[in-house]
Design a protein that fits this description.
Layout (H helix, E strand, L loop, with lengths): L2 E5 L6 H9 L6 E5 L4 H9 L6 E5 L5 H6 L4 E4 L15 H18 L4 E4 L4 H14 L8 E3 L2 H15 L11 E3 L6 E3 L12 H12 L1 H9 L7 H18 L6 E7 L6 H8 L3 E9 L2 E5 L8 H26 L3
Parallel strand pairs: 1-2, 1-4, 2-3, 4-5, 5-6
Antiparallel strand pairs: 7-8, 9-10, 10-11
Helix pairs in contact: 1-9, 4-5, 5-11, 6-7
The structure holds nicotinamide-adenine-dinucleotide and (2S)-2-hydroxybutanedioic acid.
The site of (2S)-2-hydroxybutanedioic acid has 10 residues, from helix 8.
Catalytic activity: (S)-malate + NAD(+) = oxaloacetate + NADH + H(+)
Organism: Cryoendolithus antarcticus
Subunit structure: Homodimer.
Length: about 325
């Protein structure tokens, strides 16, 4: 029996993500939690003839605890999204507290669950989650993941637009670092099978992956940020993790992890000078079973991108750690 929980389930990401999870054969029980509208969303999804049993909870009557009880995997897209002119860091003020509260609930009720953090700024909310879990004595770094899959999905899509490849997902493109602007580093030189990016297109392609979120925010014109593509990406990562947990081997996906707690992560932490970083991670029953250090294989162009990434990401991480150490 696998129980999945979505926290923030009534939102722009939460609803389509819950739909995909409800339809997944890897999930037997899906609980939805949000501060509004979960009874409606759960009732709507309950009419779908898939195997997963579904229920929905609000904060009243100990709803968070009820939703989280027995959870094997908790996906968190709770929190406000950007509007034009905002950075992801501008979301910190509100979303830091939301993520902290939800992780406290997880630490108390289902500390052994895989935790997938979507809420922005991911570069800071994942360190917040880790610090809250550490404080509660419940931190298992192999089970905490910042979801950066949308960056990978974008890289696959934009490269296929250039290469003409019919099925974009057939090309594996590692995207590493963090999840905002210049902290997002696509390594096109390591694509498998290899892709030839014309030199005059490389800067624009790199920027499009790094700032793909802004493209959606601008197009939505005040109505939020990526929701449907994020639901797809979040589901893709969650399902890969569940498949790996069931024993399927060879599943590797980039994700933002606490490096010192993941096998293979120490060397990457040393090289980057950072404790958190997204790298291709081998998934398995334990969660993050091996972090792959591919940084040394980056070409000169990508090494320059990595330098800018390290500079920005360090501050984002410290901000999250500090938020829990010295609450405002
Ligand atoms: P949204 O406003 O449509 O939905 C957010 C939901 O969270 C709402 O239903 C709200 O009621 C709920 N919520 C607020 N406080 C809560 C709490 N304490 N507990 C439970 N639920 C709570 O926003 P969205 O478009 O779905 O985006 C959600 C978050 O995901 C944003 O922070 C956004 O920046 C982020 N995001 C991340 C990625 C990524 O790649 N990691 C991609 C897209 C969006
Ligand atoms: C994205 O990459 O689309 C998300 O992080 C949302 C945003 O604020 O851009």
């Amino acid at each position: 029996m696998v129980k999945a929980v979505v926290a923030g389930a009534a939102g722009g990401i939460g609803q389509p993500l819950s739909l995909l999870l409800k339809a997944s054969p890897y999930i037997d029980h899906l609980s939805l939690y949000d501060v509004v509208n979960t009874p409606g969303v759960a009732t709507d999804l309950s009419h779908i003839s898939s195997v997963a049993k579904i229920d929905g909870f609000l904060p009243k009557d100990d709803g968070l605890k009820k939703a989280l009880t027995g959870a094997d995997i908790v996906v968190i897209p709770a929190g406000i999204p950007r509007k034009p002119g905002m950075t992801r860091d501008d979301l910190f003020k509100i979303n830091a507290g939301i993520v902290k509260g939800l992780i406290e609930g997880i630490a108390e009720t289902c500390p052994d669950a895989y935790i997938l953090v979507i809420s922005n700024p991911v570069n800071s909310t994942v360190p917040i989650a880790a610090e809250v879990l550490k404080k509660a004595g419940k931190f298992n770094p192999q089970k905490l993941f910042g979801v950066t899959t949308l960056d990978v999905v974008r890289a696959e899509t934009f490269v296929a637009e250039l290469s003409g490849e019919k099925d974009p997902a057939k090309t594996v493109i590692p995207v590493i670092g963090g999840h905002s602007g210049e902290t997002i580093v696509p390594l096109f030189s390591l694509a498998k099978p290899s892709v030839k990016i014309p030199e005059d297109k490389l800067d624009a392609l790199t920027k499009r992956v790094q700032f793909g979120g802004d493209e959606v925010v601008a197009a939505k014109d005040g109505a939020g940020s990526a929701t449907l593509s994020m639901a797809y990406a979040g589901f893709r990562f969650a399902e890969k993790l569940l498949k790996a947990a069931k024993g399927e081997s060879g599943i590797v996906e980039p994700t933002f992890v606490y490096l010192p707690g993941v096998p293979g992560g120490d060397a990457i932490a040393k090289e980057t000078g950072l404790e958190y970083f997204s790298v291709p991670v081998e998934l398995g029953k334990k969660g993050a079973e091996k972090a792959h250090n591919i940084i040394g294989q980056a070409n000169e162009y990508e090494k320059k991108l990595l330098k800018a990434c390290y500079e920005g990401l360090g501050g984002n991480i410290s901000k999250g750690v500090e938020f829990v150490a010295n609450p405002p």
